[in-house]
Specification:
The longest helix has 25 residues. The protein has 15 helices and 11 strands. The radius of gyration is 22 Å and the shape is globular. By secondary structure, it is of the alpha/beta class.
């Protein structure tokens, strides 16, 4: 489904007067408003190809209809999101779920929607129908060199697909680990994984990055071979300057201080990017900002501070992507909500008075430091987020426009009620 220019124009015209009244405070009272708006326009969040269909749990999946059946339809869905919010200008593919049959044609389709290809993702946490050897007991850590070689070759194949599409990064998430004490020799598992990653790293083009993603638990529950940011940092440090840690917000134990992890990785120049989501208990993969919006703000506070300290470009020097699962929501609505929540947290972090914050810290003024952060967090930045969308050519209220067009019903009419997106 395409968003017609007249539909966008009519929507914005109806809301424009009310928007201008809300925006007036910012343009009159906040000296930094223009800088923040421009940074929001530049800031793009990649959409994962596997998040465009209904997710689920091990207990069941409840499809919502109209799911994309092909990679072209997935790009069309991301293109629609981007047309609505002008902040979803990239798609991240999972291989082999979304193997492009014709890379040139796929790139042309992406360009038609104004999309680029973000990091490509390998998959050695599932056995594929045509796969010779099983990953039941691990992939890059496996005791059998032949299994490790199969997993290495898969990752190298993913790199080749990424090169053909213009991607510049490979994300490796491993389910490798153990379920019971005694099952695994931890030192050998680490060493085998490192050796396997070194072979993959050697196949990277010179202008690529390798993101090593970690997770505290699941599907293994006694140990994970890349189980925390420290182990990921070790792998990335041993691999070389093109390797980085990737932080998925849901991949931590409950109440982990993710903002401190972010600050440390930035300081060590080993933070590569993010998978945004939210959680109540574990890797819930809920809508970003839906459960812990203050934590999301605090993470962005450290990101802005740390990136500015190193002179980094907020928009391009880290990888920004959503990784969520939608069991009871329309996936596209959920993604629109997540993107806006990320933009809001980013805008709030840009509001922090860093000079005053450092003065408070140096004076051990705990109350003042807390008030500075909470003042920024409690500020309603939605008018400037909407203004950034408007200037970039998007909708003032993307979700409202999406619903007013009855988009899901149209997608069901085009694709069918029982379609299931690849990878799910």
């Amino acid at each position: 489904m395409n968003l017609e220019s007249f539909q966008l124009a009519d929507h914005n015209q109806r809301l424009l007067d009310a928007h201008r009244r809300k925006l007036a405070y910012w343009t009159d009272a906040v000296a930094d408003a223009e800088r923040i708006i421009q940074k929001l326009i530049d800031f793009q969040i990649a959409i994962p190809s596997w998040a465009l269909g209904t997710g689920g749990t091990r207990f069941g999946r409840f499809g919502g209809g109209g799911e994309p059946r092909t990679l072209d339809e997935k790009m069309a869905d991301v293109g629609l999101l981007h047309a609505l919010n002008r902040a979803s200008g990239a798609i991240s593919l999972h291989i082999p779920w979304d193997i492009p049959q014709d890379a040139d044609a796929t790139r042309q389709t992406a360009a038609h929607y104004g999309l680029r290809f973000d990091a490509v993702n390998s998959n050695t946490f599932q056995d594929q129908p045509d796969q010779a050897l099983s990953y039941k007991f691990g992939s890059l850590q496996h005791v059998d060199p032949a299994v490790r070689r199969q997993a290495i070759e898969h990752n190298i194949e993913v790199i080749r697909h990424g090169v053909a599409l213009g991607s510049k990064a490979l994300t490796v998430w491993l389910s490798d680990g153990s379920c019971f004490p005694g099952q695994l020799n931890f030192r050998k598992a680490f060493s085998r994984t490192l050796e396997s990653l070194q072979d993959i790293y050697a196949a990277l083009p010179s202008d690529w990055k390798l993101f090593v993603e970690y997770k505290a638990f699941e599907p293994n529950f006694y140990s994970m071979t890349v189980g925390d940011w420290g182990s990921s940092f070790l792998y990335a440090s041993k691999l070389g300057p093109q390797a980085y840690t990737l932080v998925d917000l849901g991949h931590h134990l409950p109440n982990a201080n993710i903002e401190q992890i972010v600050a440390t990785l930035l300081m060590e120049e080993k933070l590569g990017g993010f998978h945004f989501n939210d959680s109540k208990y574990g890797d819930d993969d809920l809508t970003a900002g839906s459960i812990k919006p203050y934590q999301l703000f605090l993470i962005f506070n450290e990101l802005v501070d740390g990136m500015d300290a190193r002179g980094m470009n907020h928009a391009t020097d880290l990888g920004w992507m959503i990784d969520a699962s939608h069991n009871v929501k329309d996936p596209l609505e959920d993604l629109l909500q997540s993107v806006e929540a990320i933009q809001i947290a980013y805008a709030q972090a840009l509001l922090v008075d860093r000079t005053a914050l450092e003065e408070a810290r140096e004076a051990n003024d705990v109350v003042r430091a807390q008030e500075i952060l909470q003042d920024a967090f409690r500020t309603d930045v939605r008018p400037i987020v909407a203004e950034a969308r408007l200037r970039a050519g998007g909708a003032l209220q993307p979700l409202t426009l999406y619903r007013s067009l009855d988009t899901r019903t149209q997608l069901i009419r085009e694709r069918g009620l029982k379609t299931v997106a690849t990878g799910l």
